[in-house]
Amino acid sequence: MSVRRFWQLLASWICGIVIGIVGSTITLLTFGAFSRTLSPWIVRTWGKSMLRLARVTVSVEGAEHLSSDTMKIATFNHGSLLDSFLIASIMPSGSVAAVKREMFYYPILGLTMYLCGFVFLDRRNSARSRKQMAKACKRMERNRLTVFISPEGTRARTHELLPFKKGAFFLALDSGAPIVPVVIEGAFDLHPPSRWTTDPGHVRIRVLPPRPTVGLSAESIPDEIEALRKLYATELATMRAEQGKPVIAPVARAA
Fold first, then answer.
1. Is 122's pLDDT higher than 80?
2. What angle do helix axes 167-175 and 221-242 make, rounded to 10 degrees?
3. How would you classify the pairing of strands 119-121 and 201-207?
């Protein structure tokens, strides 16, 4: 490992720990009274700090689709560890993220996410995950929340999209909230799987118009999954073509 990569890794951990401790302390001292605005601010600060340390710049198109103070489900494609920092850096007030349950046990980071109201999903137990989604739905209705969630569920090992899981769509079914697709292009190139550090570079995020879910039913969820996955594949191909990159994300049947 080069000296630059070593210091990037060390600085990232120190940054995460410091922001986690400060954020957790502030949240506890205020008894969560300002969690709707304070929690996203803490998360954004962490995300932007981590991107600066990695020397990654970001351009966001269509951010207005996330700005309205209404319930939304913001889905994003997930092919890189860098996605966590990217999504954190653009989270508006009144938003939380859905993450895998295992992250709760990460030192300091897990406590910070819990205090910031993150939704922890058990990927190994569908019944428990469904109950967690139902609780998240009630929180969305009560606090007009936007929930960020990756329909792939985990990071892809290649540029190709993984099959989309049903969690985000059941949340849409229960809440009636629209789905706002957030398309990330370039993160995989800068921080592919099995890497501990990030190459400097630029990432584009394109937020697409909301997709209404009124009329969505359990029976129509597979069709909506397929349609959304095709939309992502098409948009990613378009974004890569705009930059002269080879198109390497073929459309395959969603599971």
1. no
2. 120
3. unpaired
Contacts of 81 (CB under 8 A, 6+ apart): 155, 191, 195, 198
Phi, psi torsion values for 163, nearest 5 degrees = -60, 145
For 126-159, what is each residue's pLDDT tens digit? Answer: 777 777 778 888 888 888 889 999 999 878 777 7
The first and second tokens of residue 164, run together, are: 């989309």
- Give the chain's domains with CATH numbers: 3-242 (3.40.1130.10)
- Let me know: does 205 contact 87? Beta carbons within 8 Å: no
Is this structure's pTM higher than 0.90?
Answer: no
Give burial (CB, 10 Å; 0-12/13-18/19+) of 4: exposed
Tokens of 3: 């000296």
* CB-CB neighbours of 44 under 10 Å: 17
The encoded tokens of residue 6 equal 């070593």
**How many angstroms separate the first and last alpha carbons of the chain?**
38
248 pLDDT tier (thresholds 50, 70, 90): low
Residue 139, SS3 per DSSP: helix
Query: What gap in Å lies between CA 210 and CA 129, rounded to an integer?
Result: 25
Distance, CA of 60 to CA of 62 (rounded, Å): 7
Kindly tell me the burial class for residue 143, based on how many C-beta atoms sit within 10 Å of its own C-beta (0-12, 13-18, 19 or more): middle
3-state secondary structure 182-225: EEEECHHHHCCCCCCCCCCEEEEEEECCCECCCCCCCCCHHHHH
Euclidean distance between CA atoms 182 and 65, whole angstroms: 10
Give me the pLDDT at residue 153, please: 80
pLDDT of residue 186: 93
